[in-house]
Amino acid sequence: MDAKEDLDVKIGLEVHCHLTSLKTKLFCRCPADYYNKEPNTNICPVCMGLPGSLPVLNEQAVKHALAIALALGSRVSQKMVFYRKNYFYPDLPKNFQISQYDKVGGLPLATGGQIRLKDKVVRIRRIQLEEDPAKIVYEGSISTSPYALVDYNRSGVALVEIVTEPDLTTPKQARQFLQKLRAILEHLGVCNCDLEAALRCDANISVRGGYRVEIKNIGSFKDVEKALSFEVTRQKMLGAKRGMETRHWDDVRGVTISLRVKEEEQDYRYFPEADLPPYIITEDLIAETLAAMPELPDARRDRFIKQYNLPHQAAEILTSHKSLADLFEKSIEKYRSPLRIANWLISDILGYLNRKDLDPSTLKIAPEDIAALARAVDEGLINEQTGRNLLLKAATTGKRIEQKIFAEVSKIGDEATIKALVDRVFKENEKAVKDALKNEKAINYLIGLVMKASGGKTDPHITRSVIVAKLKQLS
Ligand code: ZN
Ligand code: MN
């Protein structure tokens, strides 16, 4: 059920998305993949901000950012300009971040656009390209750590910042927005959102027209909802402090704590980055990006409804995770049972993943196995419950389902079922029964008939003993 609109609450999000598909950082040739590297080895004079070094724009990053902007229906600037956002912090060796700005002559990559939720349109304010600062590592908690370590490997990787208008009115909507955005980014192939810190979110919230409070350090979509719920309650009870404030989400304690009085925008002394010329975004580049645009989640959802007759809700859930939608389509390519397979993926597989807090992309189940199980159920070889059990087993172990399992689970070893089959065969083959009563060897023929009637699934030993017992009764 969707939470009701809370008209007292205004929530806006600022999402930073790491363009993980790029080979290099935004302004230098250092690899964009900074994961699992010795600290401070993935660096050069440019991303360390050494004097005399000059940034050179990675044009591939512009293309990826442009794809995001176009996917969200934003107005792309004909010319974009980089600005310096000045502040001092250990994670920022130049003392400024090369970013973009939408005021005092600044031209971000794009403005406007929207993301549609089920019953809400969330407007996008702007989309900009900027470099990521370094990573600061604390010992334990930020407030008690005796020192801070800085790892510059991440410094200078390309980020796309997406800022929404404060259109969201409930914490739950904020989470739905992020899920939708993630699905779009996954379909565009520009961001592997599962990687640590690949998708980061700050949330702004004001209650009953009070001052805006910004919450930082929110690690997961679930935490976005939790942190915002906490803030709604806190601000409704106490009112927001006078003046803007930045708060930190402590996910261990489940509370927000005051970090500092929020900087006003003028504190950043934004001015143009003179080392980078304005970048002209040509009509050709836009046309090229639009032509290469993959199918996006909403279009894919509508196609699922039309092409596979799925209920709206099922199509929406499947397409909100690219890997799940891919698994669905690959499975029904092998065996077309869309409703059954959609149902299994949503209730069994996604249910399991949610319980374990795992992402669908971590699944190692083969589409061939999903198809084979669905076929086996449709053909009556195994029952629905067995199919689901095997599916879950394959999903949890990551192992292929061996063919002999189908054979084994499909054996009918249940005596009552076999008795019923034997009764039927006896009724339909009076002559064979008479023969067997006279000649013990003719029993094999009866066994054969029962096996045939069951499609070879009855256990031969039990079948024989049932037949022998029945013949004894008759004689
Ligand atoms: Zn570098
Ligand atoms: Mn930013």
Description of the molecule:
By secondary structure, the protein is an alpha+beta fold. The chain folds into three domains: 282 residues, no CATH class; 115 residues, no CATH class; 60 residues, Arc Repressor Mutant, subunit A, CATH 1.10.10.410. It contains 15 helices and 17 strands. Strands 1, 2, 6, 7, 8, 11, 12, 13, 14 and 15 form a ten-stranded mixed sheet that branches. It has a three-stranded antiparallel sheet with strand order 5-4-16, with no helix packed on it. Strands 3-17 form a two-stranded antiparallel ribbon. β14 and β15 form a beta hairpin. α6 crosses α8 and α7 packs antiparallel against α8. The longest helix is centred in the C-terminal third of the chain and has 19 residues. 37% of the residues are buried. The site of zinc ion has 8 residues, from loops.
Write the layout of secondary structure elements.
Blueprint lengths: L8 E10 L40 H13 L3 E2 L2 E2 L2 E4 L9 E4 L10 E2 L2 E4 L2 E12 L3 E4 L9 E4 L6 E7 L6 H18 L10 E9 L5 E6 L2 H18 L6 E6 L4 E7 L9 E2 L6 E2 L2 H9 L5 H12 L3 H8 L2 H13 L3 H19 L10 H12 L5 H14 L5 H7 L5 H14 L1 H9 L4 H11 L6 H15 L1
Parallel strand pairs: 13-14
Antiparallel strand pairs: 1-11, 1-12, 2-6, 3-17, 4-5, 4-16, 6-8, 7-8, 8-11, 9-10, 12-13, 14-15
